[in-house]
Design brief:
two-stranded antiparallel sheet; 2 strands; 55% helix; elongated
Length: 108
């Protein structure tokens, strides 16, 4: 029988990255993304709409994701994309989706 396997803790360990380093990188990236969205909204003259902010996450959530255990119950694709991007920035290497989340036999 197959199951989803959360491999983020293994990736962090293999590259000597701490959960704190990942959390800081994600928080910084989220702040930059929010700033870009705000700038884009401000540049749309004459249109008044509420600024759409990206969905954030708490440091405790990120630390939980960095521990060995089960796959996160709720993981948005945008968050997974941010995690992959942060890992690439921290490692200086390409990171594949399958490096973090895999569909594999339970015995693996």
């Amino acid at each position: 029988m197959k199951r989803l396997t959360w491999k983020l803790p293994d990736v962090l360990k293999a590259h000597g990255i701490t959960s704190y380093q990942l959390e800081v990188k994600l928080r910084t990236s989220l702040a930059l993304e929010t700033e870009r969205l705000e700038q884009a909204q401000k540049s749309k003259k004459g249109q008044q709409s509420e600024i759409q902010r990206p969905v954030g996450y708490s440091p405790n959530t990120i630390y939980a994701w960095c521990k060995l255990g089960t796959v996160p119950e709720r993981l948005q694709t945008s968050t997974l994309e941010r995690i992959l991007r942060a890992l690439e920035q921290l490692t200086g290497q390409d990171v594949a989706f399958s490096d973090v989340l895999a569909w594999e036999d339970e015995s693996a």
